Amino acid sequence: MDLETQLQYGVIVIELKDVVPRRDPSLPNIYVSVTTMDLEQRTELLNKGKSSAWLKNNVTSLRHDLSIAPSLTAYDEAKDLERSIINTLRSQGYTVNRNTDIWTVYVIELDSKATTNPGKGYVYVGETMKSPEARFAEHIGRASNSKTKLFASVVANHGKRLRMDLAPKRRYFDVQASKKAESEWAEHLRNLGYYVKGGH
After folding, report:
1. Is 44 in contact with 37 (CB distance < 8 Å)?
2. What b/e readout covers 3-34, taking b as 16+ CB neighbours within 10 angstroms?
3. What are phi and psi of 109, to 5 degrees?
4. Which of 19, 169, 23 is nearest to 91 (CA)?
5. What is the DSSP track for the chain?
6. Could you tell me the residue ranges of all domains in the chain?
């Protein structure tokens, strides 16, 4: 029996000091990783900066409620579990492994003269991981990369200004929630009488 087949894997979850700004002010920074060590021992080593220098003196506590002690014999199974825990915590708003991604639904006012029936207003609804201001600039500037265009033609041609007063006030912690909110907000504005583009 080789060494790899003898190892047992678990997932360690540690609460940290604010090593980066919190995605949700009420939820702490978290570190998640696969481990083969006793959880308490691994926590101590991580706080000493072993293997991840950025963790040195930043550990506040081991999260026993979220960690899985080494008991899995397959590394791939442990990695799948790690990914699942990370995705769950991120979707709840935790700042995991220094990932500070946040999504926003934004609204752009379009020129009402570009349509025969603008209703209460002619608008575009989108979602982004960038700031709404940066996203608006991409639309207006007809930004693109080597693979695709990064703008909506209707905004490039008729965009006037951001209308964050018409956008939802909350932030979203994964792309699925953001895309769902984008679609629902577009429908909400349509129901209020706006002529809406976007909102895929």
Report:
1. no
2. eeeeeebbbbbbbbeeeeeebeeebbbbbbbb
3. -80, 130
4. 23
5. --HHHH--EEEEEEEE--SS--SSTTS-EEEEEEESS-HHHHHHHHHTTSS-GGGTT-EEEE-TTT-EEEEES-HHHHHHHHHHHHHHHHHHT-EETT----BEEEEEEE-GGGSS--BT-EEEEEEESS-HHHHHHHHHTT-B-SS-B-S-HHHHHHEEEE-GGGS-S--BSSHHHHHHHHHHHHHHHHHTTBEEEE--
6. 3-96, 104-198
Token output for 102: 């946040």
* β-strand pairing of 68-72 with 9-16: antiparallel
Q: Which residue shows structure tokens 């429908």?
A: 187
Question: Among the listed ranges 4-18, 32-46, 160-174, 182-196, which one has the minimum average pLDDT value?
Answer: 4-18
> Once rounded to an integer, what is the mean pLDDT over residues 132-153?
95
| Residues 79, 119: Cα–Cα separation, whole Å | 51
Structure tokens at 135: 């996203």
